[in-house]
Structures are given as C-alpha cells and as structure tokens.
C-alpha cells in the first residue's frame, strides 16, 4: 500500500510538472495568454518593417456617456491586466481602448529605435483610425511616461491625464549608471521565473498573494520561448528608451487636467539592480515623489493610497476603481 501511494504521488508530481510547463511556456506575442476582451490589430510600417499594434476596443455596457478612456500599460505588462478596470469603466458608460504598445503584449516585437514620441504617434493614429477625437488616458508605470508624452504632444486630443504610479518621476540618468543596449540585453537574458517573482514581490506589492502569480507566469513564460532572445533585445531597447527620454522636467508644461493615483509604498526604480543599498534607500520613494510631482504639474490633483505598492488597480482594486471613476 505504501508503494502504491509513493507511485501515485510521483505520478501526480510528474503530471503537475508537465502541466506547469505547458502553461508557463508562452510565445513572445502572448497568443496563448487569455485577454479579457477580443483583440483587434492596427497595421503599422516602421523602419521598413510591417508590424501590428494589438488593442481592445470595448463598448459601454450601459447607455454610452459619449466619452472614451484609453489605457496605457506598464513595461512589464500588457493589456491582459486591465480586465477589472475595463469592466468598471464600461459599466459607467465609457468606451475603453486598451492598446498593447508596439514591443509589448500581443503586438509585434520589432528590433527598432524605440521612442515615446513614436509610440505617442502610433496611439494618435489608433484614435484617428477609430474616429475618436478626444479621450482621457490612464497610464500605469511606463504607460504614465507615455501618457505624459502624448499629453505634451496632443493636448487638444485629451480630456484628462490620469497617472497611476508612473515611472519617470525622477531622472534616472542622474543616479543610475549608464548601460549599453548590449549590457542590458545580457541582463534581460538572465531573467527567470524566480528572479521575476522576487522583483515583483520587492518592488510592486506590499504583501504577496497567490492571486499575483499569474503576472509571474506571463512575465516568465516567454523565457521558455525559442524567440526569447528577440524578446530580451526589445526589452533592452525599451529600457534604453525609458532611461534616455525622461519627462520629469516637462511636467510643468502640461496643459491637460491631471490626476495622480499613487500607492505610497511603491519603491520602483528603473535600473534598481545597478544601485547599491544606500542608493536604493533614497530613490523610488513614491510617498514623496507623488507629492513632488503634483506640485510640478499646474493645477493637478493627487489621490494617495496607504498600504499599496506599484499597481493599485490590482492590489487595492475596489478602492482604486472608486477613485478612478469618481475622478472621471
């Protein structure tokens, strides 16, 4: 009987391993990741390459209020993590557009010179294609930097700028050592499920919960892909974009009504692993950065969340959605 249970346990572990490998191995364009709403594609030509920009276009689930909200995801994410936000907004009468930026999520991963200016132009093209004249934009993390650049370039196309724990509240060039794309590429190639999990635990959330594992599964799943080196190169190129194209000194020039949503326990620093412990202790402190940024942006407002890290729309979902819909 004991041998039977041992064999049964070994069989279960073997099946579990196979199943885990099956869910964890992802294509770099995330075709095997479930998105909350149907995906459409905008064709784009860049640097002699034909690429596709994925996006969700979700209609209001009640009588439309005539307004649109666009969602810009963070660097380590894609549109898959916006499900509850889209549901809340469409339930309030908004049309929601949630693109995966070129180089991320379901969109193409071309090896190009990435810039926030170019990404902003592509998002304007998406709005033009859909016949949308004005939108509010909610930008999370890197999406906050992009939303800021969009607002600086096209203020006439925006109702409100909504920044959820945006990165770029500091000029990383002033304290993070410079890296070549090749050096960053080699670091990206070393990513594993455990290193990604530890980074998310230490930087993104105040208390780790099993509910967050799906983010790790997606972030780490692409490392098993045969195309992972291409994915890592794109990640290095977009890291370089963030490092070299700050927006912090241009907040004063914003003319769009702006609201910051800040999880006060966030300690995100782009290039954190290149800093020693003393440097890490004085940077990335959103409980201070949020207030300082609000002072830089003319007429802006700030909503702060206690006991919350980098992703309020996941960590304190209900509280964030109440604040978001109320602000709109």
TrEMBL record:
Residues 68-315 form the AB hydrolase-1 domain. Gene3D superfamilies: alpha/beta hydrolase. Residues 1-20 form the signal peptide. Keywords: Hydrolase, Signal. GO terms for molecular function: hydrolase activity. The keyword Cell division does not apply. This is Alpha/beta hydrolase. InterPro entries: AB_hydrolase_1, AB_hydrolase_fold, AB_hydrolase_sf, Epox_hydrolase-like.
